[in-house]
Write a structure and sequence with these properties.
This protein has eight helices and eleven strands. It has about 250 residues and is α/β, with parallel strands linked by helices. It has two domains: about 120 residues, 3-Layer(aba) Sandwich (Rossmann fold), CATH 3.40.50; about 100 residues, Winged helix-like DNA-binding domain superfamily/Winged helix DNA-binding domain (Arc Repressor Mutant, subunit A, Orthogonal Bundle). The protein starts with 9 loop residues before the first strand and ends with a strand.
Length: about 250
């Protein structure tokens, strides 16, 4: 499988366990992707600096740095999709991964076909674009208070024209809220709208994503203007929204 630039999709596989690393590399290579094997965080950062990476499969336990801190560092400058892989199965680790900005989460031992399905889903839903920030060319979407949502490219740009780094789940949640502006959406409804194929849904997912979105688009996250909480009912997007292009 190739990108629009007619080059293989490049996936960085980061794991210090050689057996696991080789197995995942063989798996993605069998689907036509280009696997970039990294045994530690240093190897990943070198790969990111050397050329474009379209997705990162990142183990949490690395010999030189914790995977969560690696993901946090990546998120300071890149929106490259991240799938975290770990032997830890608790909700706390999943929530921490979401808070940092991971796009999906797989627990060891995992089914290889499931991992491949998640890789393909994340690549598809992010437009296979893990490049540097750039101002999106809006074709159709929504505009609110200077922000612009490009549905075709799955991008959100701020009033300054700079694209914000949103994960797959954050973007899906924002679209669900903006698309129903003025209507209260329950947590269960939002869980259904943001649930990715093959993904695991747990109770605090929506609350974590709302918190992250507020930090990114609200001037005062603790006193939000856009995403209001309706206690006992859910959340409502409370701002005028203008459709761009063919969106009704």
């Amino acid at each position: 499988m190739t990108t629009s630039l007619d080059r293989p999709i490049r996936i960085a596989v980061v794991d210090d366990d050689e057996t696991v690393r080789d197995a995942v590399c063989d798996l993605v290579a069998s689907e036509g992707f280009e696997a970039v094997a990294c045994r530690d965080a240093a190897g990943l950062f070198a790969a990111l600096a050397a050329g474009r990476i379209d997705l990162v499969v990142l183990d949490l336990r690395l010999p030189d740095r914790d995977g969560l801190s690696v993901a946090a560092t990546i998120r300071t400058s890149s929106r490259v999709p991240i799938i975290m892989v770990t032997g830890r199965g608790g909700d706390l680790d999943r929530i921490m991964g979401l808070e940092i900005g991971a796009d999906d989460y797989v627990v060891k031992p995992f089914n290889t076909r499931e991992l491949l399905a998640r890789i393909k889903a994340v690549l598809r839903r992010t437009g296979r674009d893990g490049g540097p920030f750039s101002r999106p060319q809006i074709r159709h979407g929504w505009r609110f208070d200077g922000y612009e949502i490009d549905l075709d490219r799955r991008r959100l740009s701020g009033p300054d024209g700079v694209a914000l780094a949103l994960t797959v789940a954050e973007f899906d949640l924002l679209v669900a809220l903006v698309g129903a502006a003025g209507r209260v959406l329950s947590r269960d409804h939002l869980l259904d709208l943001t649930h990715r194929a093959g993904g695991e849904v747990f109770d605090r997912t929506v609350d974590v994503l709302i918190l992250r979105l507020r930090r990114k688009i609200e001037a005062e996250p603790t006193n939000p203007r856009f995403i209001r909480t309706e206690r006992g009912h859910g959340y409502v997007f409370d701002a005028p929204v203008e459709a761009i292009g063919p969106v009704a």
